[in-house]
Structure formats: structure tokens, C-alpha cells
Amino acid sequence: PPDAVPQAPEDPLFGLARAYKADDSPNKVDLGIGAYRDDNGKPWVLPVVRKADEVIRNDPEANHEYLPIAGLAALTSKAAELLLGTGSPALSEKRVSSVQTISGTGAVHLGALFLAKFYKVNGANRTLYLSNPTWANHNQIFSNVGIPTAQYPYFDKKTKGLDFEGMKSTLANAPDRSIVLLHACAHNPTGVDPTPEQWREIAAILKEKNHFPFFDTAYQGFASGDLDRDAGAIRYFVEQGFELVIAQSFAKNFGLYGERAGCFHYVAAPASDAANTTTRVASQLAILQRSEISNPPIYGAKIASIVLNDPALFAEWQENLRTMSGRIISMREALRSKLEELGTPGQWNHITDQIGMFSFTGLSEKQVQKLREDFHIYMTKNGRISMAGLNTRNVEYFAKAVDSVVRS
Ligand code: LMR
Fold first, then answer.
1. What confidence category does residue 88 fall into, taking pLDDT thresholds of 50, 70 and 90?
2. 123, exposed or middle or buried, with CB in 10 Å at 0-12, 13-18, 19+?
């Protein structure tokens, strides 16, 4: 009965966005949801996305028909190439099965559903290990489908970098054949990524323990400005012969947030019957997809696919990615140098060491609250800031506000 439904808390990120909107201070600063803003604090439609949109609008054949259940093939095939590299043996050996999804969240969900149904040992689901901390939505997506979750240490509060020893020892001591969720690049919420050498060690542990890697990638090209570099960890794992899955979002790197464009990829391990395994997996993914969303939305998929399939537009997209990542890197430098200039107590090197959309500042929940009450600055209570919310107009205001709350 309806009165047995308890009140749930508001989503912390979208609640923050609502509170920011309702604030009428002219000084307010939005460092909440991870969405790119230009130097005027405005959403940025990528110029290459405008061009792709023109292509759709000028196509006399364009219509609003259903896509196939697995989505737009011209997108999913290029999306897999983008992740794995064009010459990847996984692709030529037909070991990859790809499905277009409702952005990254939909991809994580489809993967969760698939593993809940098919990845069992003695009839029971395996535990999935999440980094501590991780994107808050991960927890509920996996628990909604009945996959038990646990945590591995990730963020070292002292160095504001990676707790590599803690991470390794938890993964090495987890039961064999656990599932391990890994952020491919630009870790959300910390902005802390393993180095290539550390990725190799992580892969060796997962291999030794027969763990199942589940990659989440929402920032390819957005993190460093280099698409290949940001796919480095995934490519290394695939080269090592893992069976794995990847959730891929095009929200951030195409600025297609509300269009919900993304893909889920299953990669089989190299084996003589790998292509058959992949075909069977694809057939099951199609059933799951059909019952969940029938078929995915067309507009964002067309935009991304037009760009990925046209060499000139692809080159322009890389330019746009460098514009976004470059502005964020310059804001990291500006924030760090303002704080150092002010002599704000503490070390601030992590602001420039971290990468991608977010910085985990190390500010306490109380300091975060004070920033909101006294300065109209909005950020999640774990101290995460969306770097894209900073610009040449507000970075000094933010630095001075941080200086004030750190001293008080
Ligand atoms: C974020 O973490 O802010 C973004 O990934 C947006 C979201 O959906 O939570």
C-alpha cells in the first residue's frame, strides 16, 4: 500500500543543483554537478556538435523511427574502436559486443543487470568492489539489481592522492572472482588516477585473483585532452587478455548531457570460441535492453556517430576536447596559485596533481557548509568541486572564501 512507502532523501547532486538555482545572490558559484561550463559560467555546446546537428537537419531522409535494440551500429562500432584502438585484436577477433545505452548510467545499469543474471559462482552473485569514495550512484545501481557491494581504499586523506597500498591489499585479499569497478580515467569524485605503472600492478592482482574488471569511463579525451592516453588503462587490461565490461558515457566529452548517449561493451577473453561467447552475450544483452528501454534514443547517438565517422569532424572534436581540458587545467593552476599566494594553511599541490572534472579539495563537511552559508558557493559535502564551475571571474572569490573558512 502507498502508505508503506517511506520518504527517500533527495539525490545529493540534483538537490544541490536545485538549491543553487534558488539562491539569488549575484556572487553564487556552482561547483556541484560535473558539467562543463565556459569561462562565462555558461554551458558550452561544442562547435563540432553544432556542425553534426546541421548535418542531421539537412538530411532529407532523417526521421524519428526506432533504432534497433542494440542501438545505432555506426555509433557502437566506432565507440568500441575509440576505446580499444582501431587495431585492437579484440575487435578483429570479434570478441567485442556493444550496445548503445542511456548514457553512462544506463551502461552501468545494463552491465549490473547482466552480471546479476550471469556472473554467479555456485548460484550466488559475486561481490562488487567499489573505490572509497566513488560516484554515489554506483552504490544504488548495483544494489538495485541485488549485487552485493564492498569497498576498496582509494583516497589517501593525508596526501590527497592514491592510497595504493590499501587498494592493492584489499583487492588481493578479496574473495577470488570478485567484480572490481575501476574508473578508467579522471576518477569521480577524487580526480586521482593510478599511474600507468600502478595500473600494471592492479592488473596483475586482478589476474592473479581471477577478478572481473568493470570499467566506467565518462571522461575519455576530457581528462588529458588525449583520447588514446585516457583509454590507456582499458587498453592495457584488454591486452592482458581479461574478460571485462566497459560502461562508456558521451555526456561529458561531447557535452551531450541531456541527450543520454553512451554504450556498454562486453569484451571476451581471447579463446578459440570467443566469437561464439560474444554472440551469446549479445543475444542476452538484447533481451535485457528490450525489457528495460526497448531501444535507445536516437538524437545524441546520431550526433556522436556523425563526429566519430567523419575524419574532419573527428579532428575538430579533438580540438574541442583540448579546449575543455585546457581550460580546466588552467583553472587548477589559477586556484592553486591564488591559495598559495594567500598563504592559505595547508598544502595545495593536489589541486594541480588531480585530473579531470573534479578536485577533492580536502575541505571538511563543516567548511563546505560555511562556504555555502557565508559565500553562496555550492559543492558536495565530501569536499568535491567541479573544476568546470570555476572561471577567470570567480576563481579569486572562491580562493578567498576557502582561505577564510580554512582559517576560521
Ligand atoms: C557528477 O558526478 O556530478 C556527474 O557525473 C553527474 C551525475 O549524474 O551525477
1. very high
2. exposed
Report the residue among 11, 30, 33, 188 best suited for mutation to probe ligand 1: largest number of ligand atoms under 8 A from its CB.
Answer: 33
Helix (H/G/I), strand (E/B), else coil: 262: strand
Give residue 191 CA to ligand 1 midpoint distance, Å: 13
Does this model's pTM top 0.80? My answer is: yes
Cβ atoms of 187 and 131 closer than 8 Å? yes
| Domains, the chain | 10-45+326-407 (3.90.1150.10), 73-309 (3.40.640.10)
131 touches 216 (CB < 8 A): no
What is the rounded average pLDDT of the residues 351-355? Answer: 96
Cβ proximity of 102 and 293 under 8 Å: yes
DSSP E strands in 34-105: the ranges are 96-102
Quote the ligand 1 centre to 176 CA distance (angstroms).
31
Question: What is the 402 CA–ligand 1 centroid distance (Å)?
Answer: 23
Helix axes of 311-342 and 395-407: crossing angle, nearest 10 degrees: 40
ipTM: 0.92
217 within 8 A of 184, measured Cβ to Cβ: yes
Length of the chain: 408
Please give the average per-residue pLDDT across 384-400, as a whole number: 97
> What are the DSSP calls for 158-226, one per residue?
TTTEE-HHHHHHHHHHSPTT-EEEEE-SS-TTT-----HHHHHHHHHHHHHTT-EEEEEES-TTTSSS-
Residue 251 has pLDDT above 90, yes or no: yes
In angstroms, the CA 48 to CA 81 distance is 20
